[in-house]
Amino acid sequence: MKTLAALLLVVFLAQFWSYGETASLEKDEDCPLCLDVYQPVCGINGKGNKKTFPNECELDQYNCFEGDDYELESEDVCPGVVQPDLETGPSVILGK
């Protein structure tokens, strides 16, 4: 009986924990939802920082969630900017 009660408690806590994560993601309902399409764009913010985004929607989504002001600079990777390579892990210099 104690095992069943412990199991039910674990299930309840897991449900409660996952609800908290979902609720935090829903706080910015006005932020765009983006498709997983790779059409890289280069964005630049008001401080002059450049960042390559997977697509223009992801640039807008980043601004929305992070409160930043990146604008589209070009429809390609940012030349000479070090970005992480998601497939291999190490950083690579894009645009060379």
Descriptive tags:
Wheat Germ Agglutinin (Isolectin 2), domain 1, 36% helix, three-stranded antiparallel beta sheet, 5 strands, alpha+beta, 96 residues
Please give a structural write-up.
- There is one protein chain.
- The protein is of the alpha+beta class and 96 residues long.
- It has a domain at 31-80: Wheat Germ Agglutinin (Isolectin 2), domain 1.
- Helices cover 36% and strands 19% of the residues.
- Strands 2-1-3 form a three-stranded antiparallel sheet. A two-stranded antiparallel ribbon has the order 4-5.
- Strand 1 and strand 2 form a beta hairpin.
- It is elongated and about 65 Å long.
- It starts with a helix and ends with a strand.
- Mean pLDDT is 77; it is low at 18-24 and 86-93.
Q: CATH topology of the domain at 31-80, which one?
A: Wheat Germ Agglutinin (Isolectin 2), domain 1
Distance between the termini: 65 Å
Fraction of residues in helices?
25-40%
Mean pLDDT over the residues: 77
Shape descriptor reads elongated
How many H/I helices? Answer: 2
CATH architecture of the domain at 31-80: 2-Layer Sandwich
Major pleated sheet = 3 strands, antiparallel
CATH class categorisation of the domain at 31-80: Alpha Beta
Number of extended strands: 5
Structural class, judged by helices and strands?
A: alpha+beta
Taking Cα atoms only, what radius of gyration do you get, to the nearest Å?
20 Å
Q: Give the neighbour order of strands across the main sheet.
A: 2-1-3
Please write the string of helix (H) and strand (E) elements.
Answer: HEEHEEE
- Which stretches of 5+ consecutive residues score pLDDT under 50? 18-24, 86-93
Strand content: 15-25%
Signal peptide: 1-22
Pfam families: Kazal_2 (PF07648)
Domain Kazal-like: 25-80
Organism: Agrilus planipennis
